[in-house]
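#structure-requests
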Amino acid sequence: MKQVTVGSGASMALQSVRNFRSIGGLRAHGGSRLAEGLVYRSGHFGSATSQDRELLRAAGLQFIDLRNPWESHAEDRTVPTWKGVQTPLQSKDGRDAVLWSAVREGRLTELADTLSAEEAEEAMHRLYANDIAGNPSVFANFLTSLATGDLPVVVHCSAGKDRTGWAIAVLLTALGVPESVIRDDYTRSSLPENQYLIRNTAGDVPPIDKHLRTIITPLLEARPSYLEAAWCSVENTWGTRHSYLEDGLGLTPALSQKLQARLLV
């Protein structure tokens, strides 16, 4: 059970939502910190209990969903769709489409028969370098929504670590949070209690033996090398991280000031 703090300071405990947490309290340069209760990150809400759903509704969170429609269809089988904005990434590299559908639909035998741990890690690097770094408009919209839209907000995808991890990483970078703090927050998604639960089409969590666990672990963890793959791709395309933020994500001085004014204390 994850304990989190909502804007008013009330405690909210989610029983069945993975990787849900606030970024409040993270330190930025100059002694400022991220305000509590304004921005949350999470995995999907498809397994939320009725109590979870009631707490989320009471918190008044705005939902930013980075998943593709086929993912939300697979993962949100047992709960009503949350009202929010869905801004999916456009695939730049279709080589791993079958892999990701197998993960979302819990086709474990297929994963065990066709994948190795090394190939899984390579797929993660491709995801970050091609699809995540290659979709700046999605993350530009995310920053703009935080600067101008309603708060509090929860940004999420399926596992809450890759697309969501990058969204939070670029936000924290824009706010002047030290890279070591960004990396520490990012890698918290590797904690066992935060990792994505693979479910079959019936919604059940099938057993995973040691051999398969070794194979899929790279898919479930948030490794620093994944973030680095995205930043390397950014630098190859935009020249510098600053140029990516400014030209790719539209982070103007005015937008930066709005974000700081709203999110830092």
